[in-house]
Every structure is written in structure tokens, then in C-alpha cells.
Specification:
globular; alpha+beta; 5 helices; Ribosomal Protein L22, Chain A
């Protein structure tokens, strides 16, 4: 699928949001998405010991969405699908086998084996973010630039008025903007706000425990951008943001640090698993990072 050129976005230069630490004009961001694997245990052979340990404590189905992020806690299928997608996508981009992809995870708050995965070993240099939401698991990859991805799914909602979680997700200005919308448009706008904010927090390396009402992003009908923090904090980096529509009306956003705009390209994650197995890729000569290797026929 071609890049969403119309979705590229430059970070805001507002002092309240900090100074953009830009080193490149743009970054390509590859996004793979697919439904959760039907038999996650069949893929345990591609997971490491720490990941298998996490699997042993996970429910087989997702818990309910949290008020803070609107996201469900990761279930076994979502977690395994994210790790398999990450390994097979990195193998394709780096020209190595999925078994050579090493992921290390340490929570920035407690040091536990959860949080944003870091890529080490043969695929080092790529940056990764993973998101789960309902029937979609997505991974985002960018070369040399920290990246974050947020995914939200539409949920049936009864009654009129403001959804109660908006008090936790939105700033007063954002809530006022939502009030001006029709009830039908509020649903999509809420998805866009949440996806953009989740992507920002992941890109800058902050826990999703950071209140989403502590910072503002642009209105969903305007180019995505980080507008500011409350109270103002000029020490935080300003990522570039792009909206990315996914299958089944899921709304996603990616955020990348150190660039003025993002060029997202969406791929079907099932293409990495032909016949229910990881695609095999020829090893590429060293010194050519970043381009896909040729598939072995």
C-alpha cells in the first residue's frame, strides 16, 4: 500500500510544547497490522524466555478498556501477535531471520519486563512500537527515530452527552471542541484524540500512566500536531504525528521524534505469515540497512 502522503504532519513549534529537536526533514514509518493470531501458542517457538514468562500470566481474552487510555489490557493472543509481527517485520526490513531479532523490554517506571520493546542485536538501529485494540494488532517501525503508535477501535455507545472518559482524556479546550461536534462525529473525533495522544507518549518514552489530559493535540479535522503541555514544559521533545486509518474502522496515529514530518506506509501483517509461518528472507550483505530483502521463493 502506498504511503499516506496527505497524512504527513509537522510538529508544532509552540513554546509550550518545547522546541522540536529536528535532525531530518521526514521519516518513513512502516506499519503492519492484522487480527490477533487464532492459535498464539503455536508461535511460542519465536518468543524468548522473558516473553514466555509473561505469556504464562496473561488471560486468554482481553480485559475491559481502561478509563485512562480506552485500551484493553493485553491478552495472550494480542501480546504474541505483536511480538511475532515485530520480529517478522524487522526480519524483512533488516534482511535477517526472525530468530535473529532480539527484543528487550524494561519498564521506565519499575524496571519490570514490560513496556516499550527495544531492538538489540542484528536489527539494532530500528525503533519499534506495538499497539493492541480489539480486533487489530499493529506494529510501527522507523529507522533511527523513536516511534510510537496508538490504535483505537469504535465502540457502541448508548445515550447522548459527553462520554465520561473524556474528562480523563481531554483538556478543557479539547472538550470544548468536542462539544461543537454532532454526536456521530464525536465518536470518530474521540478515537483520533486518543490515538494521537497514545502515539505521542510512546514516542517520547513516557508511560501511558501519564494523564492524557496533561497535554493537547490538534483538532481531529486539522493536521495532527502536539500543541502543548499543562503546565507548560519546554523540556519534552516534540514529535511529528500522522493519522493512519486501519481496517475495520480502527483509527491509528504514529508519532516520530527528530523529524518534521512522517510518511506512514501500511502493510497487511498476514503477508509476513504466508501459510501460517514466518516468511523467509534472504540475508542481505552488510552495509545496506533499511531496504526490504528479497523473499525466498
Amino acid at each position: 500500500m502506498p504511503p499516506f502522503l496527505a497524512a504527513t504532519a509537522a510538529p508544532a513549534a509552540a513554546g509550550a510544547a518545547g522546541t522540536p529537536r529536528t535532525t531530518r526533514p521526514h521519516a518513513e514509518c512502516h506499519i503492519w497490522s492484522m487480527p490477533p493470531l487464532a492459535q498464539p501458542s503455536a508461535w511460542f517457538g519465536l518468543l524468548d524466555g522473558a516473553e514466555l514468562s509473561r505469556c504464562s500470566s496473561m488471560p486468554s481474552t482481553s480485559s475491559g478498556p481502561s478509563m485512562q487510555s480506552g485500551q484493553s489490557g493485553p491478552d495472550l493472543a494480542g501480546f504474541v501477535t505483536g511480538r511475532i509481527l515485530a520480529r517478522t517485520a524487522l526480519a524483512r526490513l533488516a534482511g535477517i531471520s526472525p530468530e535473529e531479532v532480539l527484543l528487550r523490554t524494561a519498564c521506565p517506571d519499575c524496571g519490570g519486563p514490560h513496556g516499550k520493546p527495544q531492538i538489540v542485536g542484528a536489527a539494532e538501529g530500528w525503533e519499534l512500537s506495538i499497539a493492541h485494540s480489539g480486533g487489530v494488532v499493529a506494529v510501527a517501525l522507523a529507522l533511527g527515530s523513536p516511534v510510537g503508535i496508538g490504535v483505537q477501535r469504535p465502540r457502541p455507545r448508548g445515550g447522548a452527552g459527553r462520554p465520561p472518559e473524556h474528562e480523563l482524556l481531554l483538556t478543557p479546550v479539547e472538550r470544548a471542541e468536542m462539544e461543537r461536534l454532532s454526536q456521530a462525529r464525536r465518536v470518530r473525533a474521540g478515537l483520533a484524540y486518543r490515538a494521537r495522544k497514545e502515539a505521542v507518549l510512546k514516542a517520547i518514552g513516557e508511560s501511558l500512566h501519564t494523564p492524557l489530559s496533561d497535554f493537547a493535540v490538534s483538532r481531529p479535522d486539522r493536521p495532527p500536531a502536539l500543541l502543548g503541555w499543562y503546565p507548560p514544559d519546554g523540556g519534552r521533545p516534540v514529535p511529528a504525528i500522522a493519522d493512519v486509518p486501519l481496517a475495520d474502522r480502527h483509527q491509528a496515529a504514529v508519532a516520530v521524534l527528530g523529524v518534521r514530518s512522517v510518511l506512514p506506509t501500511v502493510h497487511d501483517g498476514r503477508d509476513l505469515l504466508p501459510g501460517g509461518r514466518p516468511a523467509r528472507w534472504r540475508r542481505r550483505p552488510r552495509g545496506r540497512p533499511g531496504s526490504p530483502a528479497d523473499r525466498t521463493r
